[in-house]
Every structure is written in C-alpha cells, then in structure tokens.
Amino acid sequence: MGREDSDEAYVLDLCDEALGDRGERQHRFDWLRGDPGSSGRRVKLPVDSYWPSRRLVVEYRELHHDQPTMFFDKPDRMTVSGVHRGEQRALYDTRRDTQIPGNGLRLVVIRPAELTADARGRLLRKREEDLSTIHDILMRAVADTTDVPAVRGRTEQPIRHETSEERAAVDESQVLMSAKGARYHRDGNCAGRQQGVNNSDQLGRTLHPPRWVSEGDARIAGKLPCKRCAGGQ
Ligand SMILES: [Zn+2]
Q: Which residue stretches belong to region Disordered (predicted)?
C-alpha cells in the first residue's frame, strides 16, 4: 500500500480539510534529527504533517508505533542508534514529543483508537465521523494558546507545551526529573530545563523523557533541586 492511500494519508487529508489549509507532508526541521550515522551525520527526521501558519504538527501513530511487530522491526538489523528498529522508532517518537513542543510548536498525536477503527487499528474510514473527531481534536489544540510561545529564533529558550489538565493533574509536591538530568524542576516550563533539553539535543545526546515524581524520589535518585524553580543552591 502506497503512502497516498495509506491510513496516514487519509487522516492527514482530513486534518487539511478540518483546518482549511494543506499541511506540509513529511516536513523536516533542522532541529529534529536522528542519531549520528557512521559518517557522524544526523539525518533530519520527518514529521507527518506541518502547518506553519498554525504552528501545528500532526503525527498519526498507527499501532505499530506502540506494539513492536516483526515485520516493521527487522529484529536482525541494528540501527545507528545501537538499538533495533522498533526501539529506535520509539526513541525518535519520544524525541518528536519533546522537541516539537520544545521548539514552540503544537504537537497533536492522533491514534487509531480515537477514530473509527477495527481491533487491529486499521481505520474503517467512516469519513464524516472521523472528520468531526479530527476537527474537534485540532480545534481544541489550536484554541489552546496558553503555553505556546512566540518563537523568535534559535536563541530563545523554548517552552514545553503542557495542557492545563496536565498541570492540574500534577500534585504540588511533584517534581520533574529525567534519567540523566542532574537537577529536578518544580516548574514544567522552567527555562533552565528547556536550556538543558536544547543543549543535550545540540550535542546529539539521547533525550530522556522527563517524568513527574515525588520530590523525595528525585532526591533518592540523587537529583539536586533546580536553582531557578526548585530552590536549589
Ligand atoms: Zn527549573
């Protein structure tokens, strides 16, 4: 099945229709790159579709993004990331999840379960129903302007996009830490944290997805409080 008649193309066409604007399919950003190959070159990773005027990226993630399968994973072949293909895909999806909002763009991930689909995640393509669902998803994302910064270029410290629900769900005593970061943060939008994320990315380091933990757990993990947002020295 070619890309044109794939479920992905179907979903992205509906996004175009809902937005009244054609997205740039397979767009590649300078700052979104894979791991270095043998030549040291880091290829730009594509996103499914990008609407520059909306500062919006949509990713359609079929079930194989969440469930490794033999067919997609080529388990006998290693990738430049030093992991098998399925793991690399998960790694790159995580990178997209961090870097796209980190660079001031809205990211909407659409999954088959949100649309009319069978149990294996193949879309039933009930067009009107799916269009209405996608319209709602995208309008909600586009209307939520609270955390999307105006990007003024590479020097700006980008802000991770967090929804108000996401923030409300976080208890006051919770802090944000990542596996490799030396410090934990109380503020998910902390400029210091964003700087760290950017620096790691520029150095080609693997980005470890941050997670909310209790402050006690962060201390046990050997993390120090951020100087900017968590009262560190
Ligand atoms: Zn901080």
A: 188-210
Ligand 1 centroid to Cα of residue 87, in Å, is 29
44 close to 29: Cβ distance less than 8 angstroms: yes
pLDDT in tens, 101-115: 888 899 999 999 999
From edge to edge, which strands make up the β-sheet containing 24-25? 24-25, 49-51, 56-60, 106-110
Task: Name the domain count of the chain.
Answer: 2
Closest CA to 54 of 163, 170, 138, 155: 138
Ligand 1: centre distance to CA 133 (Å): 36
Between the CA of 194 and the centroid of ligand 1 the distance, in Å, is 9
Residue 10 or 203, more confident:
10
Q: Measured in angstroms, how far is the CA atom of residue 173 from the centroid of ligand 1? A: 14
- Separation of CA 228 and ligand 1 centre (Å): 5
Percentage of the chain surpassing pLDDT 90? 36
152-209 residue pLDDT tens: 333 333 444 455 554 444 445 678 888 778 898 888 778 888 877 777 777 777 666 7
Query: Which of 86, 108, 143 marks a domain boundary?
Result: 143
Instruction: Please give the Cα distance from 29 to 32 (Å, whole number).
Output: 5
CATH number of the domain to which 52 belongs = 3.40.960
Question: Do residue 180 and residue 124 come from a single domain?
Answer: no
pTM over 0.90: no
94 shares its domain with 209: no
Ligand 1 center–CA 187 separation, angstroms: 6
Mean pLDDT of 62-80: 63
Domain ranges, residue 125: 7-143
Query: Domain check: are 127 and 210 in the same one?
Result: no
Calculate how far, in angstroms, residue 142's C-alpha sits from the geometric centre of ligand 1: 27
Ligand 1 geometric centre to CA of 29 (Å)? 26
